[in-house]
């Protein structure tokens, strides 16, 4: 649904979450981390721009030798006004998911 909705947008359309400066502390079978993030987005009207910046705060647990996320939270450095194009995009994603769910139920 995401990829279909994205392909329907005026191009170029998209974004990236850049992760930097990760700090990790391990204590036995648990760990915690903090990672700075910068969201960049590209839109046909404006090109590349900074969407927001903040940090991920993560907790991990090691189970059967593999590290797994226990919790992730994101803290944004500032609140941005909602982008109408993003609102329309995610509304389309929800619509496509509902259509697929309805088709699966009918099958």
Unreliable spans are none
Please provide the ordered H/E string of secondary-structure elements: HEEEEH
The percentage of residues in β strands lies in: over 45%
Structural class by helix and strand composition: alpha+beta
User: How would you write the strand order of the largest sheet?
Assistant: 1-2-3-4
Q: Indicate the overall shape.
A: flat
The count of β-strands is: 4
Question: How far is the N terminus from the C terminus?
Answer: 18 Å
What portion of residues is helical? 25-40%
Q: Indicate the mean pLDDT.
A: 89
Return Rg in Å.
18 Å
Major sheet: 4 strands, antiparallel
The DSSP helix count reads: 2
Walk me through what this model shows.
The protein is α+β, with helices and mostly antiparallel strands. It has helices spanning about 1-10, 85-105, and strands spanning about 15-25, 30-45, 45-65, 65-75. The chain has a four-stranded antiparallel sheet with strand order 1-2-3-4, with no helix packed on it. Helix 1 (about 1-10) packs across helix 2 (about 85-105). The longest helix is centred in the C-terminal third of the chain and has 23 residues, at about 85-105. It is flat, with a radius of gyration of 18 Å. About 0% of the residues are buried.
């Amino acid at each position: 649904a995401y990829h279909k909705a994205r392909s329907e947008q005026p191009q170029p359309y998209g974004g990236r979450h850049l992760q930097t400066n990760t700090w990790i502390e391990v204590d036995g079978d648990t760990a915690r981390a903090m990672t700075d993030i910068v969201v960049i987005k590209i839109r046909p009207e404006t090109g590349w721009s900074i969407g927001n910046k903040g940090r991920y705060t993560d907790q991990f647990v090691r189970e059967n030798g593999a590290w797994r996320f226990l919790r992730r939270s994101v803290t944004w450095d500032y609140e941005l006004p909602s982008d109408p194009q993003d609102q329309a995009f995610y509304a389309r994603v929800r619509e496509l998911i509902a259509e697929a769910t309805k088709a699966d139920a009918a099958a």
